[in-house]
């Protein structure tokens, strides 16, 4: 990736947020760029996680609660020392700080989360666009998406979402013991509320009446999990429920899962779905979820409607089938794995 003058671009990546699925996707893009020898430095808050995903790249710690003035003071030395021609970030404050730090003619790119709104077209951004190149990298589930508005004052370009743990995908031996061990329904909950996970609990409760071996693993924020545990008690499945925090998604997926019910949306929902698929675990999603675009219904998972009480019975039947039919579950897992493999990280570097 060369500049118009023939020199190689030097990229600095800036992230002011705590580690989450959105930050992970930026880190995956950074790793893809680093493999091409283009990343000069990373400035971030979650230094340990970044170093795990992008080893060998200089990582500079930033303060999570710093204001714009403090961030500008912290960002300027990173950009100047690296002689950056491109700054990539997922944060508007970081973008504003980078705009002031880069040399005229440089490029500043801000990744917009899946489903997020484009940054406001302000007077400051219009002025900045006169002395440098700005662009919005809009997260997209479509790995073959084309640029959306490349002729605009601030171009909008699609940024694919990648499988977070593609390197962990390895052949799995289909032994009878391995097939019997898949008895856990993993539910990835929404950080903003428990409501989207309630259909998963209701369906699991119906299945648990005939399949006492079913376990329900709820992953999410403590406040959300507390409410769901109360609901599980009301459904008389509290003894079959275990809870845990949202994973970092950088390690292997749920090897003991018969299915992963993705009850959230945005970057988190799609990242969680690909994380599960990479482990050959079928995914259950709502029909109105953007993650449903990854799932072939009855092929690599289940796409379910959640509009009426009868839909709970349909969901329970789908879950019971996955739990009780090992061969069908493994065939779905193979298809899910193929989907995960098709969402490699290299296209993220191409988008940049």
Q: By helix and strand content, what is the structural category?
A: alpha/beta
Strand order across the largest sheet: 3-2-1-4-5-6-7
Overall pLDDT, averaged? 86
Report strand %.
15-25%
Please tally the helical runs, counting DSSP H or I stretches of 4 or more residues.
12
How far apart the termini lie comes to 10 Å
Radius of gyration: 22 Å
Low-confidence stretches: 174-178
The major β-sheet equals: 7 strands, parallel
- Characterize the overall form: elongated
Order of helices and strands: EHEHEHEHEHEEHEHEHEEHEEHHH
Features:
about 350 residues, alpha/beta, 7-stranded parallel β-sheet, 6-stranded parallel β-sheet, about 40% helix, elongated
Give an overview of the whole structure:
By secondary structure, this protein is an alpha/beta fold. It has twelve helices and 13 strands. It has helices at residues 21-34, 47-53, 68-82, 92-101, 123-131, 176-180, 198-208, 222-234, 266-278, 310-324, 326-342, 346-351; strands at residues 11-15, 39-44, 59-61, 86-89, 107-112, 133-140, 156-160, 184-188, 215-219, 241-244, 257-262, 283-286, 301-304. A seven-stranded parallel beta sheet has the order 3-2-1-4-5-6-7, sandwiched between helices. The chain has a six-stranded parallel beta sheet with strand order 10-9-8-11-12-13, sandwiched between helices. Helix 1 (21-34) links the parallel strand 1 and strand 2 (39-44). It is elongated, with a radius of gyration of 22 Å.
Task: Provide a concise account of the structure shown.
With 352 residues, the chain is of the alpha/beta class.
